[in-house]
Amino acid sequence: MGAEAVLKYSMKIALVDLTVQYQNIHAELDEAVREVLAGGAFILGDRVRRIEEAVAAYLGVKHAVAVASGSDALWLSLRALGIGPGDEVIVPAYTFFATAEAVSHAGATPVWVDIDPQTYCLDARCAETLKAKITPRTRAIIPVHLYGCPADLDSVLRLAADHNLKIIEDNAQAFGAEYFSKQHGARKTGTLGHAGCLSFFPTKNLGAYGDGGMVVTNDDAVAETVRKLRNHGGLDKHVPEMIGWNSRLDELQAAILLVKLRYVDSWNKRRRAIASQYRKLMADLPIQQPVDPSYGKHVYHLYVIRSPERDRVKAHLDTRNIGSTVYYPLPLHRTEPYSQASSSSMPEAEKAARETLALPMFPEMTDEQIEAVAAAVREAVS
Predict the structure, then answer these.
(1) What is the pLDDT of residues 86-96, one digit of tens each?
(2) Which of 137, 152, 329, 381 could make an S-S bridge to 88, C-beta 3.0–4.6 Å?
(3) Residues 132 and 35 in one domain
(4) How far is Cα 224 from Cα 217, in angstroms, rounded to an integer?
(5) What is the CATH number of the domain that holds 350?
């Protein structure tokens, strides 16, 4: 598809279009919502229990505890693992702000580590660099499976075991992704650490129609503590056992997720097919495209390219009514809350922040839309 075709393609292409997904399964979703409204139970009811059981079975873990958001999942996991004031937690410098924010909310200090320039995940290849970040106060590492790409975890897991550190996987963007571990075999991301954190924000691969999240774990004590923390500190909110929080997934969102979970594998398969089409259509362009790592299965929550001319590419896509977004314009150590305390230099994170651009990616994209996006990128870089 050439530039002429782009000129003819006048329909706006959104970065993510959730309306098409709803149209495809609206009958099931509408019925699920009606049943909740008719039943009159809205908080921690049967559907929350069912989505917890369904997600646990899908991921292959013992426990899944539904909470109000992915951000809460991170913070409550830290609390449940006993991490708090005076502790340090190793965090990649390039990810969504919530990863570090949760560490600060727990009273701990984030310690930055740079990223792999190909996957944008924590750079586990530099084991000695990661090891150098560990101090007597280090309690945990939070690998992030960014953009749907699994982080390379084997060396991180070994390092954590050697230093008695907790692993909390930020799996907000990678529901359904797989990691092929030399030690553990093929596993879904989010299941290899002491806790995994999910987000059900509407644009996620498995998204609700509002905020929602989940903590998944094989640790009975962690699951029990999160169940208490999410409900004002007790399994019975009128009998608190600790100072907790109000972080409960509601029945409406649970009902929606139960419907969508049935489709997530087919949606992820389509995301991978879209990524393959993008890769072929733009193979000869002077841009970096996402990698499909040999050690895992990417589920392409976002399709992120990079170019030194990123801002010019984005401006051109804007003229073609093609949605694109910068994820993320600042590495975490350069954001206002952390910049005064940070003297770190994270060259790969800083370069990624200058060069990355997310293109439209959602399972319902048509071949014509994919071709139009690729042709517009070709125009921009030619």
Answers:
(1) 999 999 999 99
(2) 137
(3) yes
(4) 10
(5) 3.90.1150.10
